[in-house]
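FAQ

Q: What does a record look like?
A: Structure on top, sequence underneath. For example:
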C-alpha cells in the first residue's frame, strides 16, 4: 500500500516539470506554437509581430542571414549585373554544351547563391485574363529588382493570351494550374520542361497544397515561392517550398487590384545595400500589327478613331467576357446597356460582343444600325480601347486596360466595396465608379451613369 500511494507523488514532478534541453539540439514543432497560426488568438508580442519566421521544415538551424557578415572583395553589393555573355554561335559544332545564362562551365558564380541572383524566373499564374493582367506589375517588379532576368509564364490557355501585351515575358506556356486532375502525360511533360530550363526562382499564385508544392519542388528551382491554402489543405506544403504566403480567403481574386500584395511585398523587400523596390503601375504595350487588325474591325463597324465609346460587359456565357473570379456579378443585359448608351451624344457607342451569337440580340434591342465588334482576346480589346475616346464597362478586364492606357472610364460595380477593391484611387486614374445601392449589379442606377458621361467630354477638351 505504501508503494502504491507513493507512485503518483513520484510521477508528478516528472509530468509537471519538463526537462530543460538546449534549444540548439531540438526543433520546436510549429504546430504546437499558437504564434505560428493567425487563427489562434494570443496577446501581441512586440518583438515578433512584424518578423516572419523562417520555415522550420527546411533547416531547423537556419537563423537567417548574418547582418554583420562582410563578403569582402569577392562579392559585389547591390543588384545583380546583366549577363554579358556573347550570343550563342549557331555554327558551333559543340552545340550540345549549352549552359544557362549566368553560369560558367566550371562552376556557378558564388554571388549567384550568396547574393540571391535570379537569372531565370518562372511564374505559374492561376486564373484567367483578369488575374494574369493584374500580374503585370509583378513581372515589371522582377525586371527592376533583378536586372537581366528572363521571365517565363505558365498559365491557362485564356491567361496566355494576355502576355501578347507584355514585352517583358520571354516564353508563355499553356498549362492550366487550376486543373485538379491533369492528364499524366501533360503533367510529366510540364515538369520535365520546367526542370530542363534551370530556373533560379519559381513563383506561383495558385493556392498550393502538398500536390502543387511537389510540382514546384520537382522543377529543382533554388527558390520556390507560392501561396498556400489558409486551411488544413496546406498541410505538408511547407516541406517543399522556400517561401509561402497565406491569403485571408481561398479565393485570391477577392483581393481586387492588390490581390498579389503579399508576394509583391516579399519581392520588393530591401536587402544589403538594396533599398525597398517601388511597385510599378499596370502598363501594357500594343504591337503595330495588333493595332492594324483592330482598326479594320472597328472601321467595318462604322466608327472612326477617337469618336466612339467602348461598351464592354455584355451578359453572355462566353469565357471571352474576361470577368474576375473575385466578382461573378459583373455582366449586364443588353436592355440595360441600351438605356445607358442612349445618354451618349457626341460619341457613338461601340458594343463589344464576346461571341457571334450575341450579335442578333444586340441588333434586335439597339437596332440594325448599331455598331458592333466581335472581340475575344485581351490584346484586341486593349487596341480597341487605345483608339477610343473612353470606356463604359462593368468589372471586366476592360477597366484595367483603360487605366493602363490612361483612358477615361466609367466603371459599374455591384457594390461600393468592390469598386474600392478593384479600382483604388479612382479619381487619380480618371475613372468614375458607379455602384449599385442594392448589392446587385442589375439594379444599378442608369441616371447616375448618364450623369458621369461628361467625363469623356472633359478628356476631349484636354486633348
Amino acid at each position: 500500500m505504501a508503494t502504491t500511494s507513493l507512485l503518483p507523488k513520484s510521477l508528478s514532478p516528472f509530468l509537471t516539470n519538463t526537462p530543460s534541453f538546449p534549444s540548439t539540439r531540438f526543433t520546436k514543432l510549429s504546430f504546437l506554437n499558437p504564434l505560428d497560426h493567425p487563427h489562434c488568438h494570443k496577446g501581441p508580442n512586440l518583438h515578433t509581430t512584424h518578423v516572419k519566421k523562417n520555415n522550420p521544415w527546411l533547416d531547423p538551424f537556419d537563423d537567417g542571414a548574418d547582418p554583420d557578415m562582410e563578403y569582402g572583395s569577392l562579392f559585389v553589393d547591390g543588384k545583380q549585373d546583366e549577363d554579358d555573355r556573347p550570343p550563342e554561335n549557331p555554327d558551333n559544332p559543340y552545340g550540345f554544351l549549352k549552359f544557362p545564362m549566368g553560369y560558367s562551365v566550371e562552376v556557378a558564380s558564388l554571388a549567384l547563391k550568396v547574393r540571391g541572383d535570379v537569372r531565370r524566373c518562372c511564374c505559374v499564374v492561376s486564373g484567367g485574363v483578369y488575374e494574369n493582367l493584374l500580374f503585370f506589375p509583378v513581372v515589371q517588379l522582377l525586371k527592376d529588382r533583378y536586372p537581366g532576368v528572363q521571365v517565363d509564364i505558365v498559365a491557362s490557355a485564356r491567361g496566355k493570351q494576355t502576355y501578347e501585351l507584355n514585352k517583358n515575358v520571354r516564353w508563355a506556356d499553356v498549362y492550366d494550374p487550376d486543373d485538379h486532375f491533369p492528364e499524366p502525360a501533360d503533367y510529366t511533360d510540364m515538369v520535365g520542361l520546367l526542370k530542363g530550363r534551370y530556373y533560379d526562382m519559381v513563383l506561383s499564385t495558385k493556392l498550393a497544397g502538398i500536390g502543387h508544392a511537389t510540382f514546384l519542388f520537382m522543377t529543382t528551382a533554388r527558390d520556390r515561392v507560392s501561396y498556400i491554402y489558409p486551411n488544413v489543405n496546406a498541410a505538408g506544403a511547407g516541406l517543399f517550398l522556400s517561401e509561402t504566403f497565406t491569403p485571408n480567403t481561398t479565393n485570391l481574386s477577392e483581393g481586387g487590384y492588390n490581390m498579389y500584395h503579399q508576394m509583391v511585398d516579399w519581392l520588393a523587400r530591401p536587402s544589403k545595400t538594396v533599398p525597398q523596390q517601388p511597385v510599378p503601375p499596370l502598363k501594357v504595350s500594343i504591337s503595330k500589327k495588333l493595332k492594324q487588325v483592330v482598326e479594320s474591325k472597328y472601321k467595318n463597324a462604322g466608327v472612326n478613331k477617337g469618336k466612339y465609346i467602348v461598351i464592354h460587359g455584355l451578359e453572355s456565357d462566353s469565357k471571352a467576357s474576361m470577368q474576375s473570379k473575385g466578382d461573378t456579378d459583373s455582366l449586364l443585359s443588353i436592355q440595360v446597356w441600351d438605356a445607358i448608351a442612349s445618354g451618349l451624344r457626341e460619341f457613338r457607342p461601340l458594343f463589344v460582343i464576346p461571341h457571334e451569337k450575341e450579335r442578333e440580340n444586340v441588333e434586335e434591342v439597339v437596332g440594325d444600325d448599331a455598331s458592333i465588334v466581335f472581340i475575344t482576346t485581351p490584346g484586341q480589346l486593349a487596341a480597341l480601347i487605345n483608339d477610343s475616346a473612353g470606356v463604359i464597362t462593368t468589372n471586366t478586364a476592360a477597366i484595367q486596360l483603360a487605366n493602363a492606357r490612361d483612358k477615361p472610364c466609367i466603371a459599374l460595380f455591384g457594390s461600393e466595396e468592390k469598386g474600392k477593391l478593384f479600382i483604388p484611387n479612382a479619381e487619380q486614374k480618371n475613372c468614375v465608379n458607379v455602384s449599385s445601392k442594392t448589392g446587385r449589379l442589375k439594379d444599378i442606377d442608369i441616371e447616375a451613369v448618364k450623369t458621369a458621361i461628361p467625363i469623356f467630354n472633359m478628356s476631349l477638351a484636354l486633348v
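Q: Is there anything notable about this one?
A: Confidence is low (pLDDT under 50) at residues 1-50.
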